[in-house]
Each structure stands twice: as structure tokens, then as C-alpha cells.
């Protein structure tokens, strides 16, 4: 087991990993675990072990932090759409010779009855909407919503925007904001879609169970879902899909894939 593990966090899996590593049998006697949070959420769910909060000041700042704090392994357990910090981690790990791997929960896959429209980014999602419906449930987070305000036809649409923290303006002209944080249930999501007469759902392919209920609810109601694909992970960073695989790797018993998104021990 490495002596000091830095977990780049902000996800359920990062919290689970910190809990495992600092719990009984986790190696706490010989291993220090520090989780890093970006500091975007006012009251974050705090992981076990040491926590630092705030940006590092780019890849150079992260490299300095790794050296100064004697980090000998980095686990990038950030959200699949947090592409900047993942790229910085790859650069800093290379510069310092620190082993790095990324924990990425699997993406969602469409099943029978799903009406999914995959797109590459939020701008393409915004372009699709006028052809799909009028009342949009937007669940892509608090940032980057300007494209939904400025896309052709946007003013004719009504948006229900759900995010953990207040969304950053500009918002679409017709928008209601719902501040909430998962996990969600199929019953709750179905009621929400019905109550707001939603006819299109927009989501990132975040994966994981905590926010998947909206997909089931949309399927049951026959609604189209615009699904934003994940950005590619940094080249050459080994990927694993779950906390158990990370633990096996840290204990020297696991294998991982190099740069391929969906393979794990
Ligand atoms: P991002 O665009 O990839 O990163 C922007 C900057 O934020 C980075 O350059 C870094 O600043 C700082 N940063 C991001 N994650 C950090 C971390 N774990 N510790 C320290 N600094 C961090 O990130 P983002 O998409 O805004 O996500 C921010 C945080 O929210 C991440 O921890 C992520 O796991 C979590 N999150 C993101 C999403 C999403 O949809 N993007 C969803 C749920 C949770 P410096 O360059 O100054 O180091």
C-alpha cells in the first residue's frame, strides 16, 4: 500500500474509497489518505480522512502539492465530466513521476423502450431541443447553461433546471430552478416529470445509480432523453471502474486497462 494517497474527489465513489482506505483493514496505520475537493459546493458531503479544498493553481500547482506532501499515488476519482482537473492530474503525475490512475464509474446504456438522443456536448443538446419538445428538464449541472439560452428556438421553450448549487447565469428566458441533490427514486422522478409536464429530459452520461432514476422515469413515460456523451479521458491514464478494483490495485493485486474506457479487473 502506498504511504500517501491523494484522492481527487467530488464524487460518491471518491467518498467510498476514502472510507475504505481509512476504515478497518484499509491500511490506515501505514497509509495517509487526503481527498481534494474543488470547493464548488457550499456544504459538501465530507469524506473520511484528511481533506483539502480548492484548486491547486493548474498542473504546476498540483505537481508542487504532490512533491511537498510526499504523495506517492494519485487516484483521480473526479466526475467523468471534470475533464480539466483530470488533464491536470495526468500532467502533474507525469512531471513528478507519481503513479496515477482514474476511477470512472461505467456510463449508462440505453435499454428497450429508451428514446435516447446522444450528443457530443451541451451546445449540440441545445440545438436538438426544439425538434423534440417544449418543456425541458435540464439536469446537466449548474455550469454551461448559456447555450440553452442562446440556441435557435430557445425562447419558445420552458426549462426546469435542477442543480445542487444555484445555476450560473445566463439562464434561458423561461426557466424554473429546482435546487436538489440525489439520490432520487423512480417514483419521485416520475411525479416530478408529470407535475411539470416535462416532454424532454437532458442529462450528461454521468453513470451511477444516484441519478439514474430519471432515465427509468423518462422511459416509463415514453419521453425522449438527450444524453451528452462523456469527454475522453486523458491519454495513457489507466482506468478502473469501481472502488473494489482501486483497492486491489493499491494492494498490488489488480490489473487495469491503459487508456481504454471500460475495462477493469
Ligand atoms: P474541472 O472543470 O475539471 O476543473 C476546473 C478546475 O477546478 C481545475 O482546473 C481545478 O483548479 C479545480 N478542481 C476541480 N476538481 C478539483 C478537485 N477535486 N480538487 C481540487 N481542485 C479541483 O472540474 P468541474 O467539472 O468543475 O468539477 C469540479 C468538482 O465537482 C470535481 O471535484 C468533480 O469531481 C465534481 N463534480 C463535477 C461534475 C460535473 O458535471 N463536471 C458533477 C459532479 C461533481 P486548479 O486548476 O486551480 O487546480
What does this structure look like?
With 265 residues, the chain is α/β, with parallel strands linked by helices. Helices cover 30% and strands 22% of the residues. The protein folds into two domains: 4-105 and 231-250, NAD(P)-binding Rossmann-like Domain (Rossmann fold, 3-Layer(aba) Sandwich), CATH 3.40.50.720; 115-228, Rossmann fold (3-Layer(aba) Sandwich). The chain has eight helices and 13 strands. β7 (135-139), α5 (146-150) and β8 form a beta-alpha-beta unit. α1 crosses α8 (243-250) and α6 (186-195) crosses α7 (213-221). The chain is elongated and about 55 Å long. NADP nicotinamide-adenine-dinucleotide phosphate is lined by residues 8-11, 36-38, 40, 55-58, 61-62, 78-79, 81-85, 88, 141, 204.
What keyword list fits this structure?
six-stranded parallel sheet, binds NADP nicotinamide-adenine-dinucleotide phosphate, Rossmann fold, elongated, disordered C terminus, 30% helix, 265 residues
Chain-wise SSE layout:
Blueprint: E1 4-8, H1 12-22, E2 32-37, E3 50-53, H2 58-68, E4 73-76, H3 83-96, E5 100-103, E6 115-119, H4 122-132, E7 135-139, H5 146-150, E8 158-163, E9 175-179, H6 186-195, E10 200-204, H7 213-221, E11 224-228, E12 238-240, H8 243-250, E13 257-258
Parallel strand pairs: 1-2, 1-4, 2-3, 4-5, 5-12, 6-11, 7-8, 7-10, 8-9, 10-11
Antiparallel strand pairs: 12-13
The structure holds NADP nicotinamide-adenine-dinucleotide phosphate.
Short précis:
This protein has eight helices and 13 strands.
Amino acid at each position: 500500500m502506498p504511504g500517501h494517497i491523494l484522492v481527487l474527489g467530488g464524487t460518491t465513489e471518491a467518498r467510498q474509497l476514502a472510507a475504505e482506505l481509512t476504515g478497518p483493514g484499509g491500511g490506515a496505520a501505514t497509509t495517509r489518505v487526503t481527498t481534494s475537493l474543488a470547493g464548488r459546493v457550499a456544504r459538501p458531503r465530507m469524506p473520511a480522512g484528511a481533506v483539502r479544498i480548492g484548486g491547486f493553481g493548474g498542473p504546476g500547482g498540483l505537481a508542487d502539492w504532490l512533491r511537498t506532501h510526499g504523495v506517492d499515488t494519485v487516484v483521480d476519482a473526479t466526475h467523468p465530466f471534470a475533464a480539466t482537473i483530470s488533464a491536470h492530474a495526468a500532467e502533474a503525475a507525469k512531471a513528478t513521476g507519481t503513479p496515477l490512475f482514474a476511477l470512472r464509474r461505467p456510463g449508462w446504456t440505453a435499454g428497450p423502450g429508451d428514446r435516447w438522443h446522444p450528443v457530443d456536448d451541451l451546445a449540440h443538446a441545445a440545438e436538438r431541443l426544439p425538434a423534440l419538445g417544449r418543456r425541458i428538464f435540464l439536469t446537466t449541472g449548474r455550469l454551461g447553461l448559456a447555450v440553452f439560452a442562446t440556441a435557435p428556438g430557445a425562447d419558445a421553450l420552458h426549462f426546469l433546471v435542477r442543480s445542487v448549487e444555484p445555476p450560473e447565469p445566463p439562464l434561458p428566458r423561461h426557466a424554473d430552478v429546482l435546487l436538489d441533490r440525489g439520490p432520487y427514486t423512480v417514483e419521485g422522478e416520475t411525479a416530478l416529470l408529470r407535475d411539470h409536464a416535462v416532454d424532454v429530459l437532458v442529462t450528461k452520461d454521468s453513470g451511477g445509480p444516484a441519478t439514474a432514476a430519471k432515465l427509468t422515469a423518462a422511459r416509463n413515460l415514453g419521453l425522449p432523453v438527450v444524453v451528452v456523451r462523456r469527454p475522453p479521458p486523458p491519454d495513457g491514464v489507466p482506468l478502473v471502474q469501481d472502488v473494489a478494483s482501486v483497492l486491489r490495485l493499491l494492494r498490488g493485486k489488480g490489473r487495469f486497462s491503459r487508456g481504454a474506457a471500460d475495462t477493469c479487473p
